[in-house]
Amino acid sequence: MNYKLLGRSGLKVSELCLGTMGFGTEAGWGADKETSFAIMDAFADSGGNFLDTANVYKLGTSEKIIGEYLQNHDRDYFVLATKYSLKDNQTNPNASGNNRKNMMRSVEESLKRLKTDFIDILYLHIWDDLTPIDEVLRGMDDLIRQGKVNYAAISDTPAWMVAKGNTLAELMGWSQFVALQVEYSLIQRTSERELIPMARHFGMTVTPWAPLGGGVLSGKYLRGEKGRIKPESRRLDDHSVRITQTVVEIAGELGVAPSHVALQWTTHQGFSCIPIVGATKVDQLKENLKAIDVKLSPEHLQKLDEVSKIDLGFPGEFFREEGVKMNSFGGFYDRVEKR
């Protein structure tokens, strides 16, 4: 694999991130420890070093499996990201949320499960709409100064709040968020309205979760010539079927799997992007890793953009309309290029 810098930091991470939400067999699904170890081995053998987990994944089992794995491998080779926010026990009213008390408790528990002295990247998992953003950033900065965390990041939070936080951090001399984790794929592009432009402005790397749309973009739900689908996914509708059919068509032209096309598309959108690829089987991971060798032509990208485009709303649509005159004084007019 090639390596990319994470946001405006000097941290080098692999061009694909391994999602470990499926490490553990709680809830009747997932990879057992032996399989999880084999998946991480295969990922590392391919040059992958970027691992993504969270305190709540498989009730903490994901972190425990990674921790046991790291005991017999080079900890410094791997860039380990975990998260805090969601409830991971029933001990007290502050066992969830973005507050400093939960942050500090969660990090200490994660360090124990991961059997490590430091976390490379700490994400706020999801915005609680309660905690002041300055409390979050000061807490993360304190953890960084203590050497327990190397970099701050944020996930599933409104763009205006992230922008406020990074601006405040810059003013106060605190560590800024270097990465933004959001759902993003050919069938989920609504983050292009505010979140992704914000990330681009601040030089943040976007780490999309569900870049294959929960498996929809792999084409596995398409059945028959008429594109009949199985109804169990909330992401399945007529629009996603049309998109997936286009992905499958391009994949056929290139002689690759549809998932390779869908993953590559996310990395060609004009901003720093490292998709998170989950796996519960070694063969599944190896298949997804083949995506790094796929080359999409400008024509392929245009076709995918057209079939999956969304209404950006105001002011996004206003800005990208051809011929919009952008001058408040009316003395000079310039054509605004299409997005």
UniProtKB/TrEMBL annotation:
Keywords: Oxidoreductase. This is Aldo/keto reductase. Residues 15-308 form the NADP-dependent oxidoreductase domain. The keyword NAD does not apply. CDD domains: AKR_AKR9A_9B. It comes from Mucilaginibacter panaciglaebae. It comes from the Bacteria. The keyword Oxidoreductase applies. SUPFAM superfamilies: NAD(P)-linked oxidoreductase (SSF51430). InterPro entries: AKR_Detox_Biosynth, NAD(P)_OxRdtase_dom_sf, NADP_OxRdtase_dom.
